[in-house]
Amino acid sequence: MKKAICVILSALLSAGIFSSCSLSESGVLENSFGGGVFEKETIRILSGSENKELSDIIAECSKKTDVGIEMTYKGSVDIMNELKSGAADYDAVWPASSIWLSLGDDKHIIKHDMSISSSPVVFGIKKSLAESLGFTSGKVSVNDILGAINSGNLSFCMTSATQSNSGASAYIGFLYALTGKTSALTSADLDSPQLKEKVSSLFSGIDRSSGSSDWLKDMFLAGNYDAMVNYESLIIAANRELVSQGKEPLYAVYPYDGLTVADSPLAYLDHGDKDKETAFLAVQQYLLSNDAQEKIRQTGRRTGITRDYSQYGEIFNSEWGIDTEKILSPITMPSEETLMKAMNLYQTAFRKPSLNIYCLDFSGSMKGEGNRQLTEAMAQILLPENAEKNLLQASENEVNIVVTFDGDVRNIYTVEAVGNLPLLYEDIAAEEPGGGTDMYTAALEGIKYAAGSYYIDEYCPAVIIMSDGASKTDRRDDFMEEYKACGYDIPVFSIMFGDADDSQLNELAELTNARVFDGRSDLIGAFRSVKGYN
Amino acid sequence: MKAKLIGAVILIAVMLAAAGYYFYGKTTDVTVINGYLGGEKIGIMEDKQIADILAKKYHIAFEYSRAGSLDMVTADQSGRNYLFPSSRTALDFYKERQGEPVSDEIIFNTPLVLYSHKAVAEALMTDGTVTLSDGVYYADMQKLTEKIKSRVTWAEAGLPELYGNVTVDTTDPVRSNSGNMFAALLANVLCGGKTVDEASVKEIMPQLKDIFSDLGYMETSSSDLFNQFIRTGIGAKPIIAGYENQLLEYAAENPAQYAKLKDDIVIIYPTPTLWSTHIYIALDETGKQGAAALCDEKIQQLAWEKHGFRTSGCDISSEGGEGKVNGVAPQLNAVINMPDYKAMKIIMEELED
């Protein structure tokens, strides 16, 4: 419905006026850019979230080319998966790195792929901390960074390696550094038990994760963290905001033995529509024009073939560690087979284990459709055959806590062994909805229970409320107070079902630096998004 | 009122233009020929001058989907009229799977070359791996292969600012032709400079497998690899294997950009090297029309001048890519033959695992 309104609005406003709207729907943010009155064609681009930073330039592009542009944002790994299944809903893709195009183009639908800009994946570390760790002078290796993490001096945020390019690139970089390999990593290298120990130790330093790079930057800015792994361009964007808020900027560290560069390719998907192709080429040509390339460079991305950034000192600021003179010598990406094996290992063995606190609404208002959607959702994540298909498998040491609630807490279930998840599903499916709604009590009891039973720091914790959102508010203030007092950084995500009202859920998300997703339109997308965060 | 009038005038103008466009489109009656194309020839298919000759003189237009030369043989060919790979190996592969095609014809030639940066070429000149003669760089493949095989680091080769080992990045030899040819070249070199056959290839396979296993992820299209080489600078891809025509075409199409890169990017001719023969395979009678058209004298001339393909009638001294690009070898003397299909099949099967 929201999407329909968005499209109508953009159509109404398209008479020479640029219109934009963004909405949060199952974790996918969308922007529409309408062209002029003689708009010929609209192209739908599936894009990495880092390109949200280019919104103004894309809007200008739409105006100049008279082509409507609809942007849908996903992590690059998800873009690859969409490509593999034909990407029928899109006319173009714009992932962070061309490796995802080559890996995804099984159906040979890619045409006209051109790199729009590039940006290395770097560690952005609070400047004073980077200085005290000795990272602001000389060469820094991934092992130097690992040393700081192991000694408890550094923790960081990064995107999920199974969803986003920056996370996947950083992760592969870590694997090279930890194995000491300079030639391509092989499948056999991944079987080493020492490697598992070292990677797990590295990931224990993760504070927060996210499904996509731009969301990571937003989350970073809303919280209080030491460091994040992200594109140089997003470190620059974050620094501009930090400086304007009078806060300490991040210092960019380029680990020489684990470096990758994202080349941001924009490619046409040939579904046989000539008009779309012409429209696409106009858009691409505009983005590669001197004018647009200059504007893209102003956002902190590297463009064109020249390496002279001397007149961009305020953006590519050496005070922030940004170094455009340095020769970027990225690692060799492993073969597809090794890469996919590495991704599966990340999901099931290496990453910091998740501690999920699901709060499931069994109130009377969920009766019927709402309850059906909720049970279906739990089947997707708890039944292994579904989870594997969606790359949502539980990791080895993951903890799943389920709090079922109505006007009060009904039951608390805990499952540690992955093999018992189907039993948990059966318990949930057997509960019948009825009674009032109090999600605040459920969330609070869930957090207290988890904190009493586990060392929260050893996990990536998250509360995931699944509800239609209409809760009584008697204990709202208690929740707010006690959440702040407990001092844990536990995000409270929500997935909306039934006849949902998102205002209460949004308030919780804002307080806890989390997000609200719509489980009714794209359930798998919503789950992939939530799981990207832990 | 005035605004309304202007609006009406614009509307009528647009309608007239649309009608004109529609009828114009109807009068040019061209047969559309659809097929799979190796990425290095996209420039030819997108060339408006060539499209014009094809439409006016031959009443055809090419549509294409990009695919690696070997990938296209196994891809779904329904609705396709032609395949246009870059080697005889692809044709032999096709014949093995599907029998004789309706027709096949060599349309263009271009040698396999290495692309690198001046600093890399100079570092490799210190021990004679690369030499410079009459302004043209040549690589002693025996010496270069030895460096790759023994995992010499860039620092050891005199380039401490580069991380990792001395390698030549190629496309996937199992899926794309330039990588496939480079594998064939290495196989010949490892075999002491003789063209490998079914028997001798087996002896050198373990070494060849090690070399390719060290490369990790490989692009599936020569054009992608070349574009990345151009855009990413010395650190990312110090040396790649590609076709000579790629830089000649780039320089002809992007003279301003090439001017900026001219002092950095070098072509290095491997000694020995191999010819890439771009063979047009017609899958049906419609597809067959394409072969005749591509042999048109004017198209062949444009293919050299604008896209850098050495064609049967091309005059290397004529205006063309060569005139603007540094260090193009006027003729190639040290050329070795591609191994026959039986030997290539062993190489591909072994590298596939």
Shape of chain B: globular
The CATH class of the largest domain in chain B: Alpha Beta
Q: Would you tell me the structural class of the helices and strands of chain A?
A: alpha/beta
CATH superfamily of the largest domain in chain A: von Willebrand factor, type A domain
**Percent of residues in β-strands of chain A:** 15-25%
CATH architecture of the largest domain in chain A: 3-Layer(aba) Sandwich
Q: What is the H-and-E element order of chain B?
A: HEHHEHEHEHEEHHHHEHHEEHHHH
According to CATH, what is the class of the largest domain in chain A?
Answer: Alpha Beta
Q: How much of the residues of chain B is beta strand, in percent?
A: 15-25%
State the helical fraction of chain A: 40-55%
**Count of distinct strands of chain B:** 9
Q: Kindly report how far apart the N and C termini of chain B lie.
A: 75 Å
Total domains of chain A: 3
Number of helices, where a helix is a run of at least 4 consecutive DSSP H or I residues of chain A: 20
CATH superfamily of the largest domain in chain B: Periplasmic binding protein-like II
Oligomer: heterodimer
Number of strands of chain A: 19
CATH topology type of the largest domain in chain A: Rossmann fold
Helix tally of chain B equals 16
Report the sheet with the most strands of chain A, covering strand number, pairing sense and barrel closure: 7 strands, mixed
The rough form of chain A would be described as globular
